[in-house]
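Ticket #4471: complex job returned nothing on first submit. Input attached below:
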Amino acid sequence: MAGKLLTAGKSLGPIRRAFAPWNDPAAKPFIQFQNVTKTFGDFTAVDDLSLNIYEREFFALLGPSGCGKTTLMRMIAGFEEPTSGHVMLDGQDLVGVPPYRRPTNMMFQSYALFPHMNVWDNIAFGLKQDGMPKPDIATRVDEMLALVKLEKFAKRKPHQLSGGQKQRVALARSLAKKPKVLLLDEPLGALDKKLREETQFELIDLQVKLGMTFVIVTHDQEEAMTVADRIAVMDQGKIVQIATPAEIYEQPNSRYVADFIGDINLLEGHISSTEGGVTTLDCDGTGAKVQVSQDGGAKLGDHAWFAVRPEKVAISLSPPADPSVNAVTGEVWDIAYLGDVSIYHVRLATGATVKATITNTTRLVERPITWDDKVWLTWSRDGGVVLTR
Amino acid sequence: MRRGASWFNVTSITLGFAFLYLPIVLLVVYSFNASKLVTVWGGFSTKWYVSLLSNQGLLDAAWVTIRVALLSATLATVLGTLAAIALVRFGRFPGGTLFSGMVYAPLVMPEVITGLAMLLLFVAIGFARGFWTLTLAHITFSMCFVAVVVQSRLITFDRSLEEAALDLGCPPFRTFFTITLPLILPAVVAGWMLAFTLSLDDLVISSFTTGPGATTLPMKIYSQVRLGVTPEINAICSILIAIVATGVIIASAVTKRREVDRQRAERLAIQGV
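Support reply: We reran it on our side without changes. The output follows.
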C-alpha cells in the first residue's frame, strides 16, 4: 500500500530553486528564537540559541540524540517553555501561550493516533475542537483522506493499519487544521527504507503544494538533505551551522559538521600562506602541501584541518604532474566494494588513513588497483575546505 | 519433550485445587442440605434459599452492604484515580515521596488499627456512627487499591497521545475526559470492582465504624455464626460466591474476546488488506 500522496504534476524545480528568503535582508522571519535557553535541572538542553525560520520554508533540525533539537521543536509546539528568551511566530510572542491555542500542529514520532477512535474521528478531532460546523468537518476530513489516499480506511481503528498507513493518518490529522507551521518529529523513523525514501519526496511535494512552513526534527542526515531547504546542525544545545544541504555538505564550517554529514578525510596541519586568494596548509607528519582556493577565515600560522570528501579524491598508480601540492601517497590498506562504488582505504606513511571513493563505471572483473598497491591520492583546489575548528 | 500430563502434574494440580476449593465446595453442597444440622447430610433441598427471603435481618444487612459497596467503590475510584494521576504525572514535587507513601499506607496497615483510628476520629468529632461513617471508612481503605491499579496503567500510558490532543486544540480538562479516561477505563473499572469486592466482604473496619441500623452482611453472618452455623448462612454465602464467580467469568471472557479480535485485526493490517 505505497501509493503516491500526490499524482505527479508539474516539476517543482523552479519553485524550489528560486526560494531563498534567508538571503533577503528585507524578508521577515516567520519563526524566531531570540536568545532561547532551556534547562532541565542542571542539564542545558538549549543554550542561548537564536534562529530564524522563514515562511514556506522546509527547515530541518539535525543532530545526535540529546543535542536539543526535539526540545527546540517542542518549544514551538508549546510543550516546553523556554527558561529564558523568546519564541516568536509571525510577530507574536508564543511564550505563555498554551499548546492548544497555538496555530501549530505536530506530527509525532509515535504518530500518537487515538487508539479508541477510527481514522475518520482521528482526523476530525482537531476540527471538532474548533467548533467547526459538522458538514464542514465532513468535507475537510474527506479532503484530507483523499490527500493521503486513505478513503477506504476511514472506519478502521489505528491498530488495523500498517505502519505506512498510520503515518499517513498522522500526517492528515496534523494538516487538517491548516496550521501555520507543521512540526514533524522524526516522522519517518518507523518506516522501512524504501517507503521512507518515497515518503520524503511526497512530503516535499505536499509542502510546496500547500505552501506551509514545515519544521522537521531528524537524526538522519540523508533525510534532512533530501527534504529540507535549510538545515541547522546542532550540538549540545547550540547550532553549529545553518545552511542549505549543498552548503552544509560542501562547505562545512567545522569538523563536527563535516563529520556528522557524510564521510570526510581530515588532514591536520598549519597555515603557511594565504596569498592570492589561495590558502596553503602544511600537513603535520607527511609535510604534504595542500592548496585550497577558499580561505574559510584561516590566518597565517593557524592550526587547521584540511577536509575533503572521499568522492573528491582521485586515486592513481602513477604520480601526478606536481606531486608536491594536493597529493599524498600511501598503500591500499582495504577496499570496500559496495556495488555502485568502491571505497579505498589508503594508509599514509604517518599511519593516517585517507578514503577515496571510486564509482564502478564498468563491471568489475579485475581491479586495476588492488590491496598493497602503492598509490597516489590527488584532489583539486576546489575539492576540499580548510577548517579551523 | 513430552507435553502430556504426568502423574506428578496431575497430583499437584489436584492437591492444589483441593486446597483452594474444597472448603467452598463443601459450603455450597451443604447449602442444599435438607437437614437443619449443618454437618449431617439429610438429602437435597432448596428450602434454605426460600427461607432466606423471609429472613428480614439478613435481607436488610445485604441491602446495607450493597449500598455501602456501590457508594464507597464509586467515590474511592474517583479519589484513587486522582491520586494515581498526581503520583504519576506531577513528577517530583516537595513532599512527593511522603505523599505516595501515605497513599499506600492503608495497604499494609493492620485493619484493626485503621478501624480503631477511624472510630476514635468519629467519636472525637461527634459524627453519629452509621451508614455514612461506614461508607467513609470503606472509601479510605479501598482508595489506595484503586490508586495502585490505575497507577500501573498510567505508567505505561503514552503521554504523546495527550500532547497530540492538546496540540490539536483540546484544552487539558477536555483532553482528560476524551482521551485519557477512555484509554485508562479498563484499569479504572478494575479498580472499582476491586474496591466493590473489598467493601462487600470487610468485617473488621466495618465493626469498628458502624452504628445502629447499619449492619453489613459479613457482620450479620459473623454474629449469627457465633450462635451456630445455620444452613441459611451457607445459602447466602453460595449466592455471594455465584455473584462473584459470574463477574469474574464475564470479565475474563470479554478480555479474551477483545484480545482475539485485536490479534486478527493486526494480522489483517500487516497483510495490508
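DSSP finds eleven helices and no strands in chain B. Closing as resolved unless it happens again.
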